[in-house]
Amino acid sequence: MTADSPGQRHSREGLSMPNVLPRMADRKLGEPGTLLPAPFRQRQYLQLIGFAVIAAVLVETYGGSSPLNQFNLQLWFTYSIAAIGFYWVFGLAGRFAFCTTLMMGLGGYLSAFVTVRGWPVISGLLIAAVGASILALAADFLLGRASSLFFGIGTLALYEIGSQIFNYWTAFTGPSGMTTGLPPLSFFGFTPDPGGETSLAVLAILCLVLLFTIWIARSPLQRLVIAARDIPVPASVAGVRLQYLGTTFFMLASAAAGLSGALIGHLTGTVSTSSFGLSLAIGIFLMLILGGPKSMWGPVLGAAFYVFVPLQLTFLTNYESIVYGLLLLAALVALPDGIVGLLSLVGNSAVRHLRGVRKASDAAD
Amino acid sequence: MLQTEDIKVSFGAVQAVRGISLEVARNELLGIVGPNGSGKTTFLNALSGIVPASGRMVFEGREIRLGRPQEVWSSGITRVFQAPQVVESLTCLENVLIGCRHRRASGLSSTWRRHWMAKHERQRWRAALDALEQVDIAALADDKAGAISYGQKRLVEVARAIAGQPRLMLLDEPSAGLNDAETASLSAQLAAIRDNGTTLVVVDHKIDFLESICSRIAVFHLGEFVASGPPKVLWQNELVIQAYLGTVGHA
Questions:
Q1: Cα angle at B63 between B61 and B65, to 5 degrees?
Q2: Global model pTM greater than 0.90
Q3: How far is A232 from chain B (nearest CA, A)?
C-alpha cells in the first residue's frame, strides 16, 4: 500500500476537515518545502539539454554516414518546428488550424523572394515567420469568432485559396509556382557546410523553438490558454481573454510554420507548391497525434516517426496514405497520449519494477 | 450596490427571463429561489454576460454592458457555476490561478520577460493559496482537479471566484450534490466570504441552506420576479405560496 498524499488523505476524510497545514501563503514561494505550480517544477530544461545532446550525437554518427541521412535529420528538425507550432495552436489552444502547410509555403516563398535578391538568409527567415503570422492575424480577423469546427473548415478553405494564389501569382512564386536558386543557410557571414554543420544549425533553431515552448509552459499563458480551451465560458467569466489567446497561439503557430517552410527552402534550394501539399498537412496532424498531443515532445517524436519510419517501409510506398490513415486510427484508439504517453507508461512501469526489486532485496537483507 | 432594470432573456420564442428588476445592497447575502424553469440560472447568466440579454445593469454606480463577460469581471463580479467547472488536467492551485485578479505579466511577453513574470507570479501564487485556504482546501493545492471529489471541485471553483477579489459573487446552486455536512461547511464558508466584505447572490433549491445564510430571499416564477424579503416573512406571502407551491388551497 502506498502512502497517501496530503490531498488524498484530505479527500478521504471529507470536505470539512480543518486545515492542518501551516498558513502556506506566509511561506516564501520557491523555497524548499513550498509549493510551486506543477509546470514550474518539471525538469524541462534538463530534458531540452538531453535532447540537444542526443540529436547532436545522431548528427555526428547517423548523419555522418551519408548525405541522405544528414538530409533526413535536417528534415526531421524542420518538420518538428512546424509540428511544434501545430502543438501550440491545436494541442494547447484547441484550434484545428488546417493551414499549417500554407504558412510553410508562404514562409518559403517570402524567404526565397528576398534572399534571391541578395538579402541575408537570416532576414529571410525572420520575414518568413513574421509574414506568416501576419497572414494568420488577417485570417483570424475573419474566422476568429467561428466555432472550432468552422475555424478548421475556414482554414482549409484558406489553404485552398492560398495554394491557387501561389500557383498563379508567378511574379512572386516563380514559373509554375516554383522558385529555385535559394542560397544555403548562413548566419552573420558564417555559412555552415551542407552536412553536419547545417544539421547542427537547424537543430539549434529547433532548440530555440523548444526553449520558447518551455517558457510558455512556465508562464501564466499556458494555464490560461488551457482554461480557454477546456472551460471557455467559465474562463471568460473569470476574466480570461479568449480571443486574445486564440489569436496569439494561431499567430505563433503560423510563425513557426513559416520559419519551417523557409528552412526547407534553404535546405533544398527550391520552393514549390508541391512541397507543401495536403499530404504534408495531414502528415503534420499525424506527427502531433502519433507523437502525443499533450506534450511538447510529442511533435518532435512524431516528426521523427514521420521522417524515418517510411525509410524502413519502402515496400509500402504505394500504400502510404492507407498506412498513415491506419496509423492515425491506431493512435487515436490505442495511444491517446501518443508515443510520449507510451514511453511514459513504460518508464513508470520500469521505475515501479525497479523499486519493487530494491524493496524485495532490502527485505531479504 | 447592484441594480438590474427590466432584464430580459429570450431563446427564440421562449422568454426565459421576463423583465426582472432587482436591487442588491452592499454586503448583502441574497438568495434566489423558484421552481425549475423560473429563470434563476438564466438571470445569473445574463448578469455574468454569457447570454444575450436586454435591460440595464448598474454596479456600484457604473453601468455594465450586458453580454460582456470580460467587462463584468473587470468591474469586480465573479461567478460560480451550477456544475463545477474546473480544468481537470490542471492542479487545484492552477485552477484557482486562472481566476486571479492580478493579471499583470500574464500575456505573451511574460514568456520571455522571465524575472518580471516571476515577480508577479509569486503574488498570484500567494493570492491563490490564500483563496484555497479560505475554503479549507489548501491541502489539495497540488492535486489534479480531475482526481478530487465533486464537493471539492465546487470548493476549487469557489476559491477561483475568491481569487478574483470580487465585490459581488454570483453562485448558482452551490449546494447541489453536497451532503448535509458538506452543505453546512459551505454555509460557514459563504458566511465568512460575506463577512470579508463580499456581497453574494446565491441561487439554490435548498431552502434550509438559504435560510441559514441569507438575510433576504427573492422568489422567481416563470421568468418573473414575484417577491423578496426576509425568509420567515417571505413564506407567509400569498404570491410566493402560489408561485412556489401551487395554489393556496394546494399549499
A1: 160
A2: no
A3: 10
